[in-house]
Amino acid sequence: MFRTISLFVFALLLGLIARGQEQNIYTPAPVIKKNVRFIAETDSLNKLYCKRITGISKKSEYIRNVFKERKEYLNNAVSNGDFMFDCDIYLYVQQIFDTIVKYNPPLQGKMRIVVSRYTEPNAFALGDGTIVVNLGLLNRLDNESQLAFIICHELSHQYFDHVFNKINLIAEKKFDEDFDKQIKKTLKQEYNVHSKLMALVMPLLFDITKYSRTDESQADSMGLIFLSHTPYNTSESIKAIAKLDLFDLEKDTNNIDLKKSFDYEDYLFKNEWLTYHGASSLGAFEYKSTAIDDSLKTHPDCKIRASALEHLYSKLTWAPGKIFLQPEDKFKEISYHAEAEIIETNYRIENYGRALFLALQMSMHFPQDIYSKLIVSRCLSKIYLNRKKHVPYMYVDNTSNEYFENYNRVLAFINELTMHDLEMLGYLGFQKCGNDKFGSNEDYLFTKLVIYLAHNDLVISKSVKENYVAIFKGGKFAEEVTNIKIN
Amino acid sequence: MKKIIKLLLIACMVTNVNAQTTSFTDVDKINLNNFGYILDNGTLSGYYTFYQYDKIDRHTRAYWLPILDNNLKMVKKVSIERPKNSILMESVFNGSNFAFVFWDRRDELELITYDKTGTLTGSHKTEDLAKIEKQFLGASLGTEDDPRNITVFSLGQNGFLRQTFLKNDKTGYLLEAYDNSAKPLWNIGSDPNSKFMEIASVIYSSDKYILANVDKAKGMTSNDPEFSLLAVDATNGKKIFDVPANDATHDKAITTAFFDEDKKEIIMVGEYYVKGSKILKTKSIGMYVERMDMTGKELYVKKLSWNLDLKKFIQETSGTSGSDKEESEGSTFFHKIVRTKDGGIIAIGEKYKKSVSGWGVASALLNGTHSSTSVMSIKVDDMVAVVLDPSFNLAEYKLVEKQKSEVTLPQNYGYISTVKLGYIIKMWGGFDYSFSTFDKDANRMVATYIDYGKMEEGDKKKHAYVGNIIIKDKVITTDKFPLPTDATKVLALPAKPGDILFVEYYRKKKTINMRLEKVNF
């Protein structure tokens, strides 16, 4: 066992070193905005699940509308490029899903999986047979079995029709005549309307959230059963549940050494850039939790869930499974690719502050990584160009107690940079990205254009633009590049 | 426009808070003036709103009091029951506790304190307010410029200070200290037998000291008030000193004062005048900075004359003889004076002068003697930034050009002195200066004004620009941009240093967005 692990670590290190020496640039997965097969599948699944809704009552109409909205959500998500298709991440997740379904015949034919570009570490069932796994989840787990368990958990929600049942419960309350009369009567009163309304609504909320918590526990147990039918390692399910609590934290909570990242011979690091007065002007607020908070939770506490699952696990006999069914290295590679794609997503939604922070973290872990360096330089220049044009300042988050200190410190750092600092740090950072060795790489070329635009070097900008247009006519930045006017 | 936005702001509740913006939607009942700033040692720390969401009985209402930090994050939403028609006048944060001042629009003022969990820690009612206090409270409802505390101040961890009035024959001042539970600690006031009207304005407060500018005059309309600096021990309310601003050679008016923690000295800044002249009637000779020890003894005074020192500085730095208007044309109204970490001073002012009003003349001709409009007006001119080094020598001076505006004076106001008119125009909101923001050590300061200029050539549409004067490391730069919005209404408000808070109202969407915008420096 030890020998196997040592060999793995050695192989991994070799891989990283090789990546460092070769200085390859990660090529992000293409953003696909059309998928005829997926749209058709959405349509047929939606029809299948809507068949259960009978009658013409207001309640039935409401449920039908909810499912209609879900279909529209899926179609819009595809046209926005929010889902990943035909890339290694998608294929990896699909492979796990296929394995689970293969060993669990009741799940066959009615369900599918999709990988979203959403950055929150989460997965969810939409109730129409679609299970969505967020990109943000993929670099938070230790192994393939943990991911398989989370998929099993979501499949269990679908298996038990939890989503449909919850919509049904809400619809029942929504169209309950007695409840409606009580609300109307209360609204007509002159005094204490708010507190009386709360007294009516809160029990309903408690019912719904209690229902959700019961559903979660049921999905945990059934998820374990589904997983046990597969060759995956079942004990990883408990570890996966225990990890959920960590999802509220940054993956890496260490502070970034900004001085190391931005100290140049020609432009020395300024200590004033590190000015940080805390996340909030009013300091950390003390939160007093109440019994109501617990009652309104939709998920049971992770420790309780892990302990319940452990109890179930100890009661039954399980076949020893494999932690990885696909090559172990592949999981690490997918994890790295997911990390890079999360940066891409943040850049794509123009959250340059977050993309910069994540790229700095990646750069800290992989000092030779060129992709993360390009993103750092490009984000600094993008912030410069947007600020120069006074584009509404929506592209860098404000510090907040909701964020971790390491992220807040980077946000405070960005806030301290003058226009000249932004320009110079972007420019000098780019000079360390391979000196046109990657001139035929789309990300490199686009970054170069942005850097020289910010540097106000119109001659180079013009030539880089022409070069980009010539090589990447239908490229991912083509539209933006075409719209850039260089005078 | 400001009032409309304010009304809408107050009318709304926070429904969505994301990284950069906060949005509000409708609530039960709206009220003016219940949106404000939370200050911590004079620095903007956050915002509050206050609005009714329920009726408890005939006389009592339930209100929400959401507290937002300076990043627009809602940190607490407190539910509070108050008499109907309550106005939340102001708030202060002392690092651990909040104090809110409520006024019932009549004779009662209540100081309410909360800790950082949003738990009520105490309250103190003051009934039977002096007439002048009610006038002050009423007047402060309409003022909007630099966020400042009017009646309540922080005493650090020790609690809060309230600045109020004594009901003497002649109006007097009273400073009252409260602990974090709103329990009275001590008070200090003017001599009840004083022959003068004495009004104190707190200009500095901490857990150790309180500094107040005391204005002594024969009456409200007096043109020759005397100013003195009052220093009080914040731990026990004992007077440390009360020294007149005037010296042997000049009369002086105090604009502000600072306490130097390291040197245990006080730095006083203001304008100086010809000895024996009526301060509010004559133009100042220049500005002065004075250092004094903790007994009130003068250690050093530096006087900078508009005509000599400023002109000389412009000649030396620009190599020209300087623009005539820099030191000779009109007066300068100083809106904000701050002290930098290295001991220097930054002052932001605006040029203005009395002139004949075209509109006033036309109006007088059309209406004969029945016109209520004066033929005189105040012309509001360029912005002025002055930077003094730690020795109080002129380190930088900049005149920032902007579109001129004119405030036509009501009849008979033309006879009032230019200096006094400056204060009146300020009260009317006639200056273009909006506010200044600066970090705690004032290393970076941004003064914002609204420039009602024209769009660039080719676009004749009248449009307001947000103008900014940025002072960083004694270097003055400027940044100007059109109000970047497609909103029905927009308002620029103070925010954390280097930012401006834009409040945008979208009529069709019935939405108000509050968002922070960066100033380029």
Tell me what you see in this structure:
The complex is a heterodimer of chains A (487) and B (521). In chain A, 37% of the residues are buried. Chain A has a 4-stranded mixed β-sheet with strand order 1-2-4-3. In chain A, helix 4 packs across helix 6 and helix 6 (144-159) packs across helix 9. By secondary structure, chain A is mainly α. Chain A is 61% helix and 3% strand. Chain A contains 21 helices and 4 strands. By secondary structure, chain B is mostly beta strands. In chain B, 11% of the residues lie in helices and 52% in strands. In chain B, the strands form 7 sheets. In chain B, strands 3, 4, 5, 6, 7, 8, 9, 10 and 11 form a 9-stranded mixed β-sheet that branches. A 5-stranded antiparallel β-sheet of chain B has the order 1-2-35-34-33, with helices on one face. The longest helix of chain B is centred in the middle third of the chain and has 13 residues, at 306-318. The model of chain B is unreliable at 1-20, 26-32, 321-328 and 454-461 (pLDDT under 50). Classes of the chains: A mainly alpha (487), B mainly beta (521).
